[in-house]
Each structure stands twice: as C-alpha cells, then as structure tokens.
Amino acid sequence: MKFEAEVQAGTMVPLMEEFYTIQGEGYHTGKAAYFIRIGGCDVGCHWCDVKESWNAALHPPTAVERIAHNAAAYSKTVVVTGGEPLTWNMKPLTDALKAQDIQIHIETSGAYPLSGHWDWICLSPKKTMPPRPEFYAVADELKVIVFNRHDLHWAEEHAANVKSGCALFLQPEWSKREEMLPIITDYVMKNPKWRIGLQSHKYIGIP
After folding, report:
1. CB count, 10 Å around CB of 147?
2. Is 16 helix (H, G, I), strand (E, B) or coil?
3. How many CA atoms lie within 13 A of 171 on its CB side?
4. SS3 for 83?
5. Is residue 66 classed as helix, strand or coil in its secondary structure?
6. What's the pTM?
7. Helix or strand holding residue 37 (H, E)
8. Cβ(116)–Cβ(142) under 8 Å?
9. Strand 61-63, strand 12-22: pairing
10. Distance (Å, rounded) from C-alpha 102 to C-alpha 115?
11. What secondary structure letter does DSSP report for 45?
C-alpha cells in the first residue's frame, strides 16, 4: 500500500467513506452524527453487511487532518466505525478530531488493542475474534448481534464482564430480524436489563 508508513503510524487511515447522517443503532439512535468508516477488518463475520470494508488496500490512505476538517464542517459528533477501526492506530485521528472540539464515538469488536481517546465506546463482540479483556472496563455500550438463540447466552457471558452502567443492547442480525425479533422481545421482557436494538437507518432508508 502506498503511504504504508503513514498508515501504520496512524497519520493516514484507509478511508472507505465519510458521511453525515442519523445514528441508526444503539444508545445514540436518532442523533445526527458524522460517520467515518475505516477500511480493514479480518474479524470475518459471515453476516457482515459491509464486507467491502474488509480489504484495506481498496480504500485510499487519507490524512487524518483532512478527515477532521471535513467532519467539523458538519457535526460536533463523530462515529468512527469500519471495518474494524482499531486495526490501526487511532490516536492521531482522535487527536485531530479533538482539536476541532468534536465528541468521538467508536464502534468496535474489541479484537485489537484500544488506541485513541473516545467519549463513547460501543463494544460489539464477535465470536470469530472475541474482545480483549480490557474492553469490558471501558465499554459504555454493549451491542450484541443476535443471529440465533445461542447468541442470547453468549450475550450474557459478555454482559457479566462489563462495567456497571454499561448500556446493554440485543440487535437482530438484519437478514434474521423477522425470526429473531419475537425471541429477543420475549427475552428482554424477562430480562429487562437489556434493550432491543434496531438498525433504524435501514427502516428509514438512510446511510
């Protein structure tokens, strides 16, 4: 990859896309935010809906200062997602965003070491590469994707480890939503520490 040294240092990141929209998932659903989608992921979820993000070489290395400048023109809230953004050193990007007085959220599987400075950490663990233990103490939100009934038991294993006050969400995998939503609904009514998470942006028809 051209600019490989800069990407490894984090001063440039493989940028798949950036856009201003409404957060459609989790605790901050319904809020306007600027999304920065970073390319590169080897976690390999078979149901991933952005598999085009996996190959970092397909996405142009972009200077973090440019990304921060673009974000500041739209919003004081940024969501960094992927791919798996923590594949890369996120400190330069978060430093550049903080210099613009921006609140920064991240959506991560927790499979790689935490880098950068975050105002909100959404941990979405995946079975293919479970999260590193240090994420449980810092996650503000636990979002578990539910593909089958067993995922409810798996969700409880993670919920037992997160800090007090961490918001807990069960979100049906999109292709299984009709099958899994009644099951999740019944489970949440019996276990009200959980909330139902929906990909509301897909229902609305926005990015």
Report:
1. 18
2. strand
3. 24
4. coil
5. helix
6. 0.95
7. strand 32-38
8. no
9. antiparallel
10. 17
11. -
Closest of 127, 90, 92, 125 to residue 105, by C-alpha: 90
Which of these, 60, 53, 47, lies nearest to 87 by C-alpha position?
Answer: 53
Structure confidence by residue, pLDDT tens digits, 42-64: 988 887 888 899 999 999 999 99
- Encoded amino acid at 163, one letter: K
DSSP letter for each residue of 107-127: EE-S-S---S--SEEEE---S
Rg (Cα) of the chain, in Å, rounded? 17
Q: Which residues pair with 116 in a beta bridge?
A: none
Q: Which domains does the chain have, with CATH numbers?
A: 4-204 (3.20.20.70)
pLDDT category, 1, cuts 50, 70, 90? low
Residues 6+ apart with CB under 8 A from 121: 105, 106, 108, 114, 135, 138, 139, 140, 141
**203 Cβ contact list (under 8 Å, min separation 6):** none
Do 201 and 194 meet the contact criterion of CB atoms below 8 Å apart? no
Helix, strand and coil content of the chain, in percent to the nearest 5, comes to: 35, 25, 40
DSSP state of 130: P
Q: Which helix (H) or strand (E) holds 169?
A: strand 167-172
